[in-house]
C-alpha cells in the first residue's frame, strides 16, 4: 500500500523560496556569461597583442566552464557528490597530463 505524503504549508513555502533563489542565481550567472562573451569578442576585435589576449580569453573561458558546471549542470546540489568527484578527478588528471607533456616538450 502506498501512503500519500502531504506537504505542509511551511514545506511548500520553503521549496518555493529555494526554487526562486536558484532561478535568480541562474539568471545572474547567465547574464555574467553573456557579458564575458561580449568582452571576449570585443577584445578580439580590438586587435590586442596575442600574448596579452590569449591568457585573458583562457581565463574567461575557464570561468564560464565553472559557471556551466556549478549552476547549469547542478553540480552544487545534494546527491551529486560522486559525479562531481569523478568529474573534478578527471579534470585534475587531464591537468597533470598537460603539465607533464608540456614539461617534456619544453625540455
UniProtKB/TrEMBL annotation:
Could you list this entry's UniProt keywords, alphabetically sorted: Cell membrane, Membrane, Transmembrane, Transmembrane helix
- The question of whether Transmembrane is a record keyword is answered with yes
Bilayer topology: Multi-pass membrane protein
- Which regions span the lipid bilayer? 27-45, 51-73, 85-106
User: What domain of life does the UniProt record list for this protein's source?
Assistant: Bacteria
Which compartment or compartments is the protein found in?
Cell membrane
Please name the GO terms that the record assigns under molecular function: cytochrome bo3 ubiquinol oxidase activity; proton transmembrane transporter activity
GO CC, sorted alphabetically, is: cytochrome o ubiquinol oxidase complex; plasma membrane
- For this entry, list what GO says about its biological process: aerobic electron transport chain; electron transport coupled proton transport
What this protein is called in its record is Cytochrome c oxidase
Chief location bin: membrane
Read off the lineage from the record. Bacteria, Bacillati, Bacillota, Bacilli, Bacillales
UniProt record similarity statement: Belongs to the cytochrome c oxidase bacterial subunit 4 family.
Amino acid at each position: 500500500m502506498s501512503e500519500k505524503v502531504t506537504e505542509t504549508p511551511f514545506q511548500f513555502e520553503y521549496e518555493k523560496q529555494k526554487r526562486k533563489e536558484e532561478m535568480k542565481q541562474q539568471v545572474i550567472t547567465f547574464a555574467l556569461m553573456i557579458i564575458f562573451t561580449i568582452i571576449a569578442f570585443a577584445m578580439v576585435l580590438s586587435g590586442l597583442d596575442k600574448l596579452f589576449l590569449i591568457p585573458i580569453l583562457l581565463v574567461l573561458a575557464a570561468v564560464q566552464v565553472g559557471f556551466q558546471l556549478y549552476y547549469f549542470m547542478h553540480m552544487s546540489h545534494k546527491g551529486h557528490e560522486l559525479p562531481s568527484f569523478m568529474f573534478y578527478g578527471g579534470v585534475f588528471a587531464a591537468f597533470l597530463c598537460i603539465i607533464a607533456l608540456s614539461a617534456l616538450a619544453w625540455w
